């Protein structure tokens, strides 16, 4: 796979993540009066402008493992997550500043050797944060490339297990699967509306007989993109994040508009931004990201090198 596609994905994800970091937890109403229009400093975490969060850190931790091992090695991926958690590896500034409770608990279980890697993720209903969705694209890309440009049932099983490293409930696993199926259609160079529609056709084929898939029924509605903004939630619940990211993707026609729409929904701004930005980066390419944003983005050269190394094994 061409390195520029991987760079588009990773820079798209990291840039939107960084746009969202300063306003994480801000309400939609607050952002309507003072919207994000450019990179900011300070805010929720007191970080410098262009600083990306755990969303990007865990994505590149997964990419580094796959690049080095040339295969998806769950234990090695978790070792990288542990390096991030304990030693601040894979961070924008040398310091970790954000982590979800479910992700933390899974990494701690792994560090204590309590469970196999794919059993470390919590399986309770209330453990369906967006912490696996935000980092799933490296597995998606690897499986797409090694599967001849498609994701089959075996690939989705691995997507589910990759989610279960930190998030083991079927809702989180299914969200990662649906997102990956849509990403695969974008990689097939379909336009966004067609990629979304075909991805959901595939999702219905794989998941339609599972009662849990009913939770994703709005995504199956042909009028999903036409939903008004007030019907779109942007919380850390994985289904809300997935819907918000896809709704933004379908209601914009360039990277900048997509990133700003996603972040200005408020709530879990960095992760909604990252999840939307990764897909937008695939589709529009890194060249579509405003140059002033990329100039501010922390460790851009490092991110580009991670992408190049990852592309080399696909």
The gross shape turns out to be: globular
Mean pLDDT: 97
What structural class results from the helix and strand content? mainly alpha
CATH architecture: Orthogonal Bundle
What is the terminal-to-terminal distance? 6 Å
Runs with pLDDT <50, length 5+? none
Classified in CATH, the superfamily is: ADP-ribosylation/Crystallin J1
The DSSP helix count reads 15
If you consult CATH, what is the topology?
ADP-ribosylglycohydrolase fold
Tally of strands = 0
CATH class: Mainly Alpha
Following the backbone from N to C, one meets helices and strands in this order, namely HHHHHHHHHHHHHHH
Q: Sheet bearing the most strands, described?
A: none
Radius of gyration: 17 Å
Q: What do you see in this structure?
A:
The chain has 15 helices and no strands. Helix content is 58%, strand content 0%. The protein has a single domain (3-311), classed as ADP-ribosylation/Crystallin J1 (ADP-ribosylglycohydrolase fold). The N and C termini lie close together (6 Å). The protein is globular and about 45 Å long. The chain has 314 residues and is mainly α.
Topology:
Elements: H1 3-20, H2 28-33, H3 54-69, H4 74-87, H5 101-111, H6 137-146, H7 153-164, H8 170-187, H9 192-207, H10 217-220, H11 238-250, H12 255-263, H13 269-284, H14 291-296, H15 300-311
Helix pairs in contact: 1-3, 1-12, 1-13, 1-15, 3-4, 3-6, 3-15, 4-5, 6-7, 6-8, 7-8, 8-9, 11-12, 11-13, 12-13
């Amino acid at each position: 796979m061409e390195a520029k596609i991987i760079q588009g994905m990773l820079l798209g994800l990291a840039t939107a993540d960084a746009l969202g970091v300063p306003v994480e937890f801000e309400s939609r109403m607050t952002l309507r009066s003072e919207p994000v229009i450019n990179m900011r400093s300070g805010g929720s975490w007191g970080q410098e402008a262009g600083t990306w969060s755990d969303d990007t850190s865990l994505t590149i931790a997964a990419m580094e493992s796959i690049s080095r091992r040339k295969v998806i090695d769950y234990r090695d991926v978790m070792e990288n997550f542990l390096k991030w958690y304990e030693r601040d590896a894979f961070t924008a500034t040398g310091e970790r500043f954000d982590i979800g409770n479910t992700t933390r608990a899974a990494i701690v279980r792994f560090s204590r050797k309590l469970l196999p890697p794919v059993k470390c993720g919590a399986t309770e209903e209330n453990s369906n944060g967006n912490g696996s969705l935000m980092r799933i694209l490296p597995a998606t890309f690897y499986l797409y490339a090694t599967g001849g440009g498609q994701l089959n049932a075996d690939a989705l099983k691995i997507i589910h297990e990759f989610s279960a490293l930190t998030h083991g409930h079927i809702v989180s696993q299914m969200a990662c699967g649906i997102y990956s199926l849509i990403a695969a259609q974008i990689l097939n160079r379909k336009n966004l509306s067609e990629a979304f529609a075909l991805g959901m056709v595939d999702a219905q084929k794989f998941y339609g007989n599972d009662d849990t898939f009913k939770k994703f029924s709005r995504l199956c509605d042909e009028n999903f993109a036409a939903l008004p903004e007030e019907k779109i939630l942007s919380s850390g619940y994985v289904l809300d994040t997935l819907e918000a990211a896809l709704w933004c993707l379908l209601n914009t026609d360039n990277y900048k508009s997509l990133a700003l729409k996603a972040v200005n929904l408020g709530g879990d701004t960095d992760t909604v931004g990252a999840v939307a930005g990764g897909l937008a980066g695939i589709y529009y390419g890194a060249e579509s990201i405003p140059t002033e944003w990329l100039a501010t983005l922390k460790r851009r050269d490092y991110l580009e090198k991670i992408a190049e190394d990852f592309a080399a094994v696909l």
